[in-house]
Amino acid sequence: MARYYRYKLPPWARNCIYVAEKVTLPILIFQLVRTLFFPTTLDVFLLGILVGVFIAFYLEWI
Fold first, then answer.
1. How far apart are CA 39 and CA 44, in angstroms?
2. Which of 7, 29, 35, 52 could make an S-S bridge to 43, C-beta 3.0–4.6 Å?
3. Among 45, 60, 59, 55, residue whose Cα is nearest residue 24
4. From first to last of its 62 residues, what are the pLDDT tens digits of the chain?
């Protein structure tokens, strides 16, 4: 099975991935602060998803 290679994608798709990668950390920090002050089930769930996406970008799985 071939490894996912983001540079083979069309330029518009690479740009979308780049923007999502750069926006993930500020949204993650905002969600962390929100979860610390107003912890609801939805906030904790969203924080878990954002942490997973951030780790995926950091380890270059996406």
1. 7
2. 35
3. 55
4. 456 777 788 889 889 999 999 999 999 999 999 999 999 999 999 999 999 999 999 988 87
CB 36 within 8 A of CB 47: no
Tokens encoding 34: 């929100």
- In angstroms, the CA 28 to CA 24 distance is 6
Enter the tokens of residue 5: 């290679």
pTM over 0.70: yes
Q: What DSSP string runs through 14-47?
A: HHHHHHHHHHHHHHHHHHHHHHHHS--HHHHHHH
